[in-house]
């Protein structure tokens, strides 16, 4: 399993060429954030302009609006992270599900009767979460917002993997039958072979990506990689890999 | 990240570090467990065509029926709206909207006839709606004292600074303080049904049960503990500047007087958008399958107290029925149908693209 990284040393290329985190990727991430924020506000805005609760009492108030948007935000972000996570270890499960759970715990704690009794002026949102999240229409709004924020990203990722698969993607597709793998979260950089090479600084700027936890962001970089591969038809690192052992 | 105190690496990767005294310390090699060596068992989801495309179709197939259901439910909700600001000269409330002053003792009344062409069954909810009224203005929203509204006796006589300039008047503290309380909606609306034989029947309007339970029982409490005499409890305070009556005379019913008056509570829950509606009264359904509001002529009698012309605002009265998803809200239904269809269409497009262009690149060699 770990020997895959030795067999295909060209998989190291994206990290060393800083292809996975550069200004363009950052800009695209910012753009995605902007689009998501826009949707996160305007979809509840459209739904809330005339909302009332099931028992008729008014609902289109600021606090319910705020709770809806905040909950949508946390769920959208968690789903986004979940989709970007390539290796779901127990730690990943704990943190992703745990984040959502802790959010709800804190939300209800901050809007409970108890803490309102102690600090009335600071915790004005009392009752908002209880009244808001017990409405079916609010959950429908949250579901709609989540799906609308996720679908474009998902479509783009799928197209990238399908039409311009990176080396990592092809590697993954070959092993698509195997659903569980004893895979480290580091992207192929753990066997002792390359340790001194990297620390001695012989390599150029070591990007932070190959040490980045959890998310292997290969789908985002496929265009870059394809361009680089087409332009340079040499394999630098493969030579490295052969020499240092 | 990588320490620079590497000295040597043995064949088996055992790291030794030279200690200060010259001898070697014990190895700092981390344990060879699955957790520390990052070899945990992992599930690896991969975006293949077999997973993503069905997901799109499933989303589309789920959302479209939900959207249709929501839209149909929303269309079945009956709603009637009538603007009674009195902007037109021909409107009955035009005179009231023109001559207005805060000090007028004799309230101005106007009455507007309307016709309901659909009968309303079950509970009917009566709302007042305001337009161009920014209850979400930041300074306005902060202008309240929740401790005072919770019945804290100290805050009653010393309202917080957030309420300024509506905290003190004539050297007395204002209860309830703040701009939100000061601008409370104080029109009175009455509904009359014009019988076919000519008599005017007043429709009974319920004024309790309109606020959130948590608001009425937890957030808003009258000062003075359980003292039933609210005049005594509010001693030493004065009414807000724009109110006609002090807060302990809002209702003769003890349970609805003072800070726990439900109209007051409903008003204090600030709205999110500049055009909003707040629940005013509930018309309860009658027994024995009698229609709550039969079809016919009605009259709305307004005691016009609330001035909105100065900021180009509008006032409306809305009668509406309710369903499981709340009031009439076509947005959700249409949004769900749109998103469902877009997802489905996108799924089809991706399927076509995948079929035509997808599998070419998969067999490329990725080894050295």
UniProtKB/TrEMBL annotation, chain A:
The chain crosses the membrane at residues 26-52, 64-83, 95-119, 139-161. Residues 5-166 form the P-type ATPase C-terminal domain. One of its GO terms (molecular function) is metal ion binding. InterPro entries: ATPase_P-typ_TM_dom_sf (IPR023298), P_typ_ATPase_c (IPR032630). GO terms for cellular component: plasma membrane; trans-Golgi network. Keywords: Magnesium, Membrane, Metal-binding, Transmembrane, Transmembrane helix. It is a multi-pass membrane protein. One of its GO terms (biological process) is Golgi organization. This is P-type ATPase C-terminal domain-containing protein. It comes from Sphaeramia orbicularis (orbiculate cardinalfish). The lineage of its organism: Eukaryota, Metazoa, Chordata, Craniata, Vertebrata.
UniProtKB/TrEMBL annotation, chain B:
It comes from Sphaeramia orbicularis (orbiculate cardinalfish). Pfam families: CDC50. Keywords: Cell membrane, Cytoplasmic vesicle, Disulfide bond, Glycoprotein, Golgi apparatus, Lipid transport, Membrane, Transmembrane, Transmembrane helix, Transport. Belongs to the CDC50/LEM3 family. It is found in: Apical cell membrane; Cytoplasmic vesicle, Secretory vesicle membrane; Golgi apparatus; Membrane. Residues 1-29 are annotated as: Disordered. It is a multi-pass membrane protein. The chain crosses the membrane at residues 46-72, 331-353. Coiled coil: none annotated. One of its GO terms (biological process) is phospholipid translocation. GO terms for cellular component: apical plasma membrane; endoplasmic reticulum; Golgi apparatus; transport vesicle membrane. This is Cell cycle control protein.
